[in-house]
């Protein structure tokens, strides 16, 4: 059943008007008619089974509160150094599907792409649309937030209970334990930040700066992963350990 996010609090048996973009999708794309049912998620991340009262006007009637929570039991922030091409949008979509709660684009020394605040703000509506659609498709209870581009120095206020940076030199030294130990220690309700570099990885001085902030280096195994693969590897491992091996 198709899911839509609503920018208001929902009450059972109280109709509301869904936004025009979703109304168009409901009627023209999904070919729904009045009387069909959809799921809506409100500002409180609560899901409701709803009936389409008037498909052309976008009038929706919530009929039942659903006890569904498809979120990870820990809060995951992905910090991703800006890659080339459209890789950032790809990672946005997939990280959302895999359960990331917050996305922070990072500008590091080896980034080829340089986004000013103005350029980023022009792209922000597209990024938010990607996150919204990925959240609906994957059954999320919330849409991940996305911050403006940050530098490593600006990450300090965003640090979480646990903080890891993927670093290829750690893998080369066969020091594979940090990710495993962190995921063994983390508890329900805790927060985790994972930091991934761009195609060229991180400069040693950047790793030193992150280490001084309390961020620990971790290996992602013996193979060197592409920048767009590494965050999805991490998100998959996190999801597996939190949801499938308990």
Automatic annotation (TrEMBL):
<dbReference type="InterPro" id="IPR015947">
    <property type="entry name" value="PUA-like_sf"/>
</dbReference>
<dbReference type="InterPro" id="IPR006700">
    <property type="entry name" value="RsmE"/>
</dbReference>
<keyword id="KW-0808">Transferase</keyword>
<dbReference type="InterPro" id="IPR029026">
    <property type="entry name" value="tRNA_m1G_MTases_N"/>
</dbReference>
<comment type="function">
    <text>Specifically methylates the N3 position of the uracil ring of uridine 1498 (m3U1498) in 16S rRNA. Acts on the fully assembled 30S ribosomal subunit.</text>
</comment>
<dbReference type="GO" id="GO:0070042">
    <property type="term" value="F:rRNA (uridine-N3-)-methyltransferase activity"/>
</dbReference>
<feature type="domain" description="Ribosomal RNA small subunit methyltransferase E methyltransferase">
    <location>
        <begin position="71"/>
        <end position="238"/>
    </location>
</feature>
<dbReference type="GO" id="GO:0005737">
    <property type="term" value="C:cytoplasm"/>
</dbReference>
<keyword id="KW-0489">Methyltransferase</keyword>
<keyword id="KW-0949">S-adenosyl-L-methionine</keyword>
<dbReference type="InterPro" id="IPR029028">
    <property type="entry name" value="Alpha/beta_knot_MTases"/>
</dbReference>
<dbReference type="Pfam" id="PF04452">
    <property type="entry name" value="Methyltrans_RNA"/>
</dbReference>
<protein>
    <recommendedName>
        <fullName>Ribosomal RNA small subunit methyltransferase E</fullName>
        <ecNumber>2.1.1.193</ecNumber>
    </recommendedName>
</protein>
<keyword id="KW-0698">rRNA processing</keyword>
<keyword id="KW-0963">Cytoplasm</keyword>
<dbReference type="GO" id="GO:0070475">
    <property type="term" value="P:rRNA base methylation"/>
</dbReference>
<dbReference type="InterPro" id="IPR046886">
    <property type="entry name" value="RsmE_MTase_dom"/>
</dbReference>
<comment type="similarity">
    <text>Belongs to the RNA methyltransferase RsmE family.</text>
</comment>
């Amino acid at each position: 059943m198709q899911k839509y996010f609503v920018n208001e609090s929902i009450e059972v048996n109280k109709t509301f008007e869904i936004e025009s973009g979703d109304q168009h999708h409901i009627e023209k794309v999904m070919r729904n008619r009045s009387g069909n049912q959809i799921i809506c998620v409100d500002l409180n991340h609560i899901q409701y089974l709803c009936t389409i009262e008037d498909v052309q006007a976008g009038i929706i009637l919530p009929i039942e509160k659903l006890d569904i929570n498809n979120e990870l039991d820990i809060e995951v922030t992905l910090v991703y150094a800006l890659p080339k091409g459209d890789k950032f949008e790809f990672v946005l979509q997939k990280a959302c599907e895999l359960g990331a709660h917050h996305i922070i684009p990072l500008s590091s020394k080896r980034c080829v792409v340089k986004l000013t605040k103005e350029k980023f703000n022009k792209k922000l509506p597209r990024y938010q649309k990607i996150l919204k659609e990925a959240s609906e498709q994957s059954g999320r209870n919330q849409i991940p937030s996305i911050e403006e581009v940050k530098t490593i120095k600006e990450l300090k206020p965003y640090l979480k209970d646990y903080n890891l940076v993927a670093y290829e030199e750690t893998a080369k030294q066969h020091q594979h334990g940090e990710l495993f130990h962190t995921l063994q220690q983390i508890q329900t309700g805790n927060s985790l930040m994972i930091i991934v570099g761009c195609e060229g990885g991180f400069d040693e001085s950047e790793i030193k700066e992150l280490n001084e902030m309390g961020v620990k280096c971790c290996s992602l195994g013996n193979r060197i992963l592409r920048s767009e693969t590494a965050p999805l590897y991490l998100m998959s491992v996190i999801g597996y350990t939190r949801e499938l091996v308990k």
